[in-house]
Fold:
Amino acid sequence: MKHFKTIIAVLVFTLTFSSSQAQQEIKLENSVLWKIEHSGLKEPSYILGTLHLMCEDDFKISKKITQTLQNVDALVLEVNLSDPKEIKSMQESMKNPKKISDEISKKQFEELDTIVTKIMGTPLINFDSYGLSILNALMLQKMLPCTEIKSLETELMALAIKQQKPIYSLEKVAEQMEIIRTAYPTAFALKQILLFESYRKDFNEAIVAYKNEDITTAVDLLTKEIYMDENATNLMQVKRNKNWVEKMPQMMKEKSNLFAVGTAHLTNEYGIINLLRQKGYTVTPVFN
Structure:
């Protein structure tokens, strides 16, 4: 499929930012990079909040991130898309989706057709066999005012490979795709697409906040109540964060890591930073 790697990046983005459950807000310092320390660790590890997609002109990997990657033993991503087996797993999971026309009513199809034709420049019928999830991924790329799109995870993988550092993951592609299937019933997936214009505005404002490393504002913009679905958030954020925080201690004991995950996984009550602190880890912002 054309632009397959970009579609994968958007699906990862979908898992991170599509919704938000009511949580106690915990204000964090302005930094995308955080240091993780504990008396039981020989060396510190780090966690980087990413914004999965960005225009090439807005994209930059700061010196503190490249230096951190150079100094740690391994890179850890949500999923390891440098692994050919994982790429194959993603391709397999995207085959033979339900046709959009079979999932929604004729009236909903007509409403969606108007939006898709305006945004994509071609009628919805041309995407009918793609299914709603892939259509959503293709449309989300149009949120950005550019054609050249960068993925931070992809660039970090390239740097790690160049430096001959191992790349690991917190979960498998098959797990992520199962989460999407469970968390994205037809009505919710359709709702997200119909909110495209509102989401595009908030996403581009979030990019500005992210570039200023104001991750709290960036996440708040992308997890407004209108994008909220408790079921999806519980599956896509809360449970995943708790699972990751159970895996991270052993990984950090074995080696120093740079964990790179979507920024929304870092913030608020069920964010990784707060969950690690509850386990006794010292997690502090890295400013320079």
